[in-house]
Amino acid sequence: MNMNGVLWSDTSKEPEVSFETSPKRSEYDLAIVGGGLCGLSIALESSRRGLSVILLETGKIGNGASGRNGGIVVPQFPGAIRPSDVRRLLGKKKGDQLCELVGGGPKFMFDQIGKYQIQCDAEQNGWVQPAHSAKSEARIRGVFEDWKEFGQPVEWLDRDATFAKIGAPDYLGGWWCQSGGTVNPLALCRGLARAAVSHGLDIVEYAHVSHVLQNANSTEIQWNDKQINARKVVIATNGYADDLFPSLKKTIVPVRLFHTFTKPLTAAQRGEVLPTRVCFTDIRKSGGFCRYSPDGRILSGGLVYKIGDERANGVQHSIERLRQLFPQLGTPEIDYYWEGYCALSATWLPSISVLSKDVYSLAGFSTRGVSISQNLGRLFAEYLVDDRPIEEMPVEVGRPEAFPLRSLKTVLGGYAFPIFKAADRLGLT
Question: Is the pLDDT of residue 1 over 80?
């Protein structure tokens, strides 16, 4: 999958590096399938802690969902999910641990970017969850109160304060968290790969894994015309899961999203639109989010609609949404459009699947993968090096459980966008 037309590829300060197409050895402590943020984070921490690790990527590092998202670092669960909701789902201990990982994870992420001098245009100006309707205001007020009680550094913004932060006049209020921010996610992947290689990681690109076979004391991984053995295996393909493990594929619904960026705004426009360079994500089902690129473009996007011209539909939606958010812009011009998959779980929370003996998967980041995938990967590496019992992972761990009505929802997802837009327009979300 090439990255033509993706802004992150055109602007990455971390150079694209070509890795090996053959392994350097026949046996490893750990094999990871998938070269996105999750797989790279597991690889970096495991290699740093002394394991021999190989990472197998079917294409180029970061070219899947990890290099195609909006690069917004969100210290909050999807939508209006509250910390108290997470506690009810996972129990107090795991729930609190996951809340700490979501709320506090961006600090570790930005600190690690600094430690390894990753050139990914990282900006930590905070993140806002604004209210686009009276119903959404009530819901996100509850989210804010939960995070405040949890001890997260959050601040409620009235209508005027929200406008001062983001420059969009129609929001009724919202809350701000100082730990949020933005990155170039493809450059971040490349930087994590560089850091992991410095700790001894072997990376093989263009490795389409066809078989994972259990042996007496290890697992055999086959791809193309090659194979290696590993004591443990992690599948980190998330929304790009294929038929390697059908039971894993059934645990998520892959959702195809599009992202757009405008032409660079003028200096005058940048003084009015996102004047503090904060990023935001509201809870509209039809996509209400925005951030700046380093060169002054602004982001929009939504769910790919499979009827008609997908690109034309997406571009038109972005123009309409940006005009709605920022009427001072007039009619913005769209310079970039691309698509990519994310993976939704039934609970909207990630989980760890035990696929067979010593074979695992992390998946289901549900539009919040930039930070949580790295931090959960880091903690899972602690288990892989025997420093953390698997029972202490802050997510559900067990055999893969199929997403209810997965096949139907996967198909319907490609036709739901007009319904979502109508619900948002009527104030139902």
Answer: no
Helix (H) or strand (E) holding 354: strand 351-356
Residues 403-425 have pLDDT tens digits of: 998 988 888 889 999 899 989 88
Tell whether 343 is covered by a domain: yes
CA gap 381, 390 in Å, rounded: 10
Locus of tokens 């802690």: 49
Q: State the Cα torsion 317-182-242-349 to the nearest 10°.
A: -90
Question: Which positions ≥6 away from 22 have C-beta within 8 Å?
Answer: 204, 226
pLDDT tens digits, residue range 146-160?
999 999 999 999 999
Would you say residue 79 lies in a domain?
yes
* Rounded-to-integer distance, Cα 362 and Cα 354, Å: 9
CA distances from 269 to 225, 264, 319, 326 (A): 55, 10, 16, 10
d(CA 53, CA 30) in angstroms, rounded, equals 5
pLDDT score for 427: 84
Q: Does residue 1 fall inside a structural domain?
A: no
Q: Say which CATH number the domain at 336 has.
A: 3.50.50.60
CA–CA separation, 280 and 267 (whole Å) = 21
Distance CA 13, CA 218 (A): 39
Q: Which of 184, 211, 188 is nearest to 35 (CA)?
A: 188
At which residue do the structure tokens 């619900």 appear?
423
Alpha-carbon gap, residue 344 to 252, rounded angstroms: 5
d(CA 324, CA 157): 20
User: How far is 58 from 53, CA to CA, in rounded Å?
Assistant: 17
Q: Are 18 and 272 in contact (CB under 8 A)?
A: no
Task: Please say whether the beta carbons of 227 and 221 come within 8 A.
Answer: yes
Q: What is the pLDDT of residues 310-343, one digit of tens each?
A: 999 999 999 999 999 999 999 999 999 999 999 9
Predicted pLDDT at 144: 98
Strands 289-290 and 334-344, sheet pairing: unpaired
Domain total of the chain: 1
* Residue 117 CB coordination number (10 Å): 10
- Report the Cα 121 to chain-centroid distance in Å: 17
**Planar angle of CA 399, 254, 69, nearest 5 degrees:** 115
Contact between 348 and 81 under an 8 Å Cβ cutoff? The reply is yes
Helix (H) / strand (E) element for 202: namely strand 202-204
Structural domain containing residue 226: 7-425
Residue 84, phi then psi, degrees to nearest 5: -65, -30
Point out which residues pair with 228 in neighbouring strands. Answer: 221
DSSP three-state, residue 29: strand
